[in-house]
Design goal:
The chain is of the alpha/beta class. Helices cover 31% and strands 22% of the residues. Helix 5 packs across helix 9. The chain binds zinc ion. Zinc ion (ZN) binds next to helix 9.
Length: 296
């Protein structure tokens, strides 16, 4: 794409990302694509982040990024002001003053193949990948060859086989080891001794896909943001065991894939943020009885 000596422009990077993550694949409520930035500005370095928050913005600016590619939209709902007196307005001002562009690939990156959940599945070495929740029937806007029926594997979440079957307790420890470290860690629901061969994974909030995981007949489903009642009722109905990881940790693996693609496709330098933006910062497990210090 770029010729020697002339870096790609913001418009070039947007075009490349739109090809890999077509905006038409995003959910109707979602807001993806270029958020701010001038199309003709050169891009030498791209910062890849999950969340656009002051900390990741400062990190990107310090790294000399010309463009930030984020997973979560900074501006999802309608806004009538980006005044610097507001939290998000300050971020917008900071980026524009620093001449740093911002692009978002959210639910369109979730359903892409490779997409967010492929990177998550790769952490577990899953094979024979297939989508957990195939996309809605193809529309002309989707372009040719994007049906799951043609084997592209597009859709939300992935189902695959573990290299070695293991118990739910072992899988929970494995998840904590292969996913980025967070205070939240990983918790699981179901019989700790239950054997898991087939695993479904879905980056981000997977609460809405419990029925799909049960219908797919997987042994366990790893996602984030699971809740008491839906999880309890799902298990009571004989559904797969559940693993609940930190939201950020389930999506962070995708940033490596995103950065590698940008480097290959456009020859730009990339930096990937490992700044944990999960809101949960403290975790304490109840002490076991034998951990308690004996009274003097
Ligand atoms: Zn998310």
């Amino acid at each position: 794409m770029s010729t020697t000596g002339s870096p790609p422009t913001v418009a070039d990077v947007v075009a490349a990302l739109d090809r890999r993550y077509p905006p038409a694949w995003a959910e109707e409520w979602d807001r993806v694509g270029l958020v701010l930035g001038e199309p003709d500005r050169p891009v030498r370095r791209v910062a890849c982040v999950i969340d656009v928050v002051p900390e990741t913005v400062e990190e990107a600016l310090a790294a000399g990024a010309d463009l930030i590619v984020a997973h979560h939209p900074l501006l999802l709902r309608g806004v009538s002001s980006v005044a610097a007196t507001t939290y998000k307005g300050r971020i917008v001002h900071r980026l524009i003053k620093a001449d740093v562009a911002l692009y978002v690939a959210h639910t369109n990156a979730d359903v892409a193949a490779p997409g967010v959940s492929d990177a998550l599945a790769a952490r577990f070495g899953l094979t024979g990948l297939r989508p957990l929740h195939p996309p809605r029937p193809a529309s002309p806007a989707d372009g040719p060859g994007q049906d799951t029926a043609d084997g592209s594997g597009r859709g939300i979440g992935r189902i695959g086989e573990l290299p070695t079957p293991m118990t739910l307790a072992e899988l929970t420890r494995l998840a904590a080891a292969v996913l980025p470290v967070t205070a939240w860690g990983v918790r699981a629901a179901g019989d700790p001794g239950r054997m898991v061969r087939t695993l479904a994974v879905s980056g981000g909030s997977g609460d809405g896909f419990l029925a799909e995981a049960a219908a797919a007949g997987v042994d366990a489903f790893l996602t984030s943001d699971l809740r008491h009642h839906p999880a309890g009722e799902h298990l009571a109905a004989g559904g797969p065991a559940l693993l609940d990881a930190a939201h950020w940790a389930t999506e962070r693996p995708w940033l490596d894939d995103l950065a590698a693609h940008l480097a290959d496709e456009l020859g730009v330098e990339t930096v990937v943020s490992d700044l944990d933006t999960d809101p949960w910062t403290v975790h304490a497990a109840a002490p076991r009885p034998d951990d308690k210090e004996p009274r003097p």
